[in-house]
Design brief:
Blueprint: E1 22-24, E2 27-32, E3 38-39, H1 41-54, E4 58-61, E5 67-72, H2 74-86, H3 94-99, E6 102-104, H4 114-126, E7 139-142, E8 156-161, E9 164-169, E10 174-178, H5 183-196, H6 207-214, E11 222-223, E12 234-236, E13 239-243, E14 248-250, H7 251-258, E15 263-265, E16 270-274, E17 296-298, H8 313-319, E18 327-330, E19 342-349, E20 352-359, E21 367-369, H9 371-376
Parallel strand pairs: 6-7, 7-8, 17-18, 18-19
Antiparallel strand pairs: 1-2, 2-5, 3-15, 4-5, 4-14, 8-9, 9-10, 10-11, 12-13, 13-16, 15-16, 19-20, 20-21
The chain binds iron/sulfur cluster (SF4).
């Protein structure tokens, strides 16, 4: 391993997949990328059964609308992959799985082009001549009636803009007009430009950082207007959106909501139950849009993650009723649960929890506190 915990978190530069799982403190993490960010009810029930059979029965939702099975044993890995293959959830190769990094907006309707564009983009990314992109490089297809994925981390965005569709590189407000039929190919052209102009360094690279160095390619001149969206559980045209504490559920909960319909996986660690017209009353779900637990995010932390310098979730649960904005409790400076800035961040360090305001888990703290002190005096968060 190239770095001890005291030196800082190990940055892998790739994300775990189903074909390339990542070892964590509680076993292998096997990440499933549902096509078009959607699981049929049959697939979801199958995933729940595989989690019980080969994992520890805990399932996480990721900020890229993926589904992670935790606690998978070495002996369970191959039967698990075969089970996922039977469900149609396995790509032909690690390279294809890695490239098919597409988040699809979850409120799409039959009459908008979202599913058509995302399916074509997935097809193009599976071709042998598809651009060889870094592991974390991703696409967002956000072509519903309003944009909802602006705060979702990705590199190339296909978006609705007024009556039209645009392709926009992350990090710029300028986009290029495309059509429903050219959108996927234009997105891939932009990915090829990224590679050709040196966007990949030492196997890594993100679009926004590259634009800051080299500027925009030609043709990206159309100004777009930001549209804020705050995800909350509730009823939507597409169905009922439910949340989970820290985006984690049991296999039993996944099987139970799969009994209500097909599922759309969102990047907000929530799930839309397709076509549901009322919010389900099931254990393990957050359905109140004002639930304080929606104000906290926390990664697995210790002991589940080998890189963690302290536990996270008990502290986040204790502090949730006392925070107004977003509180991020991170087991180390990597900040997996929320890579962007949060109103308040507590990052576990050898000196206690670093308190960081309005920034990310690896930014400069204003103070360090113990968990006991923070629980006894939550006002320390805002002092
Ligand atoms: S942020 Fe959390 S989950 Fe990510 S490496 Fe650090 S401790 Fe582990």
């Amino acid at each position: 391993m190239s770095g001890s915990r005291a030196e800082g978190p190990v940055v892998q530069g790739w994300c775990p997949g189903a074909l390339r799982p990542m070892m964590s403190g509680d076993g292998l993490v096997v990440r499933v990328r549902p096509r078009s960010s959607r699981l049929t009810a049959t697939q979801a029930r199958g995933v729940a059964a595989l989690s019980r059979a080969h994992g520890n029965g805990l399932i996480d939702l990721s900020a890229r609308a993926n589904v992670q099975l935790r606690g998978v044993t070495e002996t369970g890995r191959l039967p698990l992959v075969e089970g996922l293959r039977d469900l149609g959830l396995i790509d032909a190769s690690i390279a294809q799985e890695t490239r098919r990094n597409i988040v699809v907006q979850p409120f799409h309707r039959p009459d908008d082009p979202t599913l058509t564009i995302s399916a074509e983009l997935a097809q193009l990314l599976a071709l042998p001549d598809a651009p060889d992109l870094p592991g974390k490089f991703g696409f967002a297809v956000d072509t519903g009636s309003t944009r909802v994925l602006e705060s979702t981390a990705c590199d190339i965005r296909i978006e609705r803009d007024g009556q039209g569709i645009v392709v926009r590189p992350d990090g710029s407000g300028l986009a290029k007009h495309v059509t429903e039929t050219t959108a996927a190919a234009e997105a891939l052209s932009l990915a090829r430009w990224f590679i050709a102009t040196g966007g990949i360094r030492e196997g890594r690279g993100r679009m926004a950082a590259h634009l800051a160095r080299v500027g925009l390619p030609q043709g990206f001149t159309h100004p777009t207007t930001a549209q804020g969206f705050v995800a909350r559980p509730g009823l939507y045209d597409a169905g009922a959106m439910v949340a989970f504490t820290f985006g984690q559920m049991t296999a039993e909960t996944l099987a139970a909501i799969a009994g209500l319909g097909d599922l759309r996986i969102t990047p907000w660690r929530m799930i839309v139950i397709e076509g549901a017209t009322r919010l389900p009353d099931l254990p393990g779900l957050i359905t109140d849009p004002d639930d304080p637990l929606l104000h906290v995010v926390a990664c697995t932390g210790a002991p589940g993650c080998v890189q963690a310098l302290g536990p996270t979730r008990d502290l986040a649960l204790a502090l949730a009723p006392h925070v107004q904005g977003l509180l991020h409790v991170s087991g180390c400076a990597k900040g997996c649960a929320h890579p962007g800035a949060a109103d308040l961040t507590l990052t576990a360090t050898p000196q206690g929890y670093a308190l960081i305001q309005g920034a990310t888990a690896h930014d400069t703290p204003i103070a360090h506190h113990s968990a006991a002190a923070l629980i006894a005096r939550p006002d320390l968060l805002t002092e």
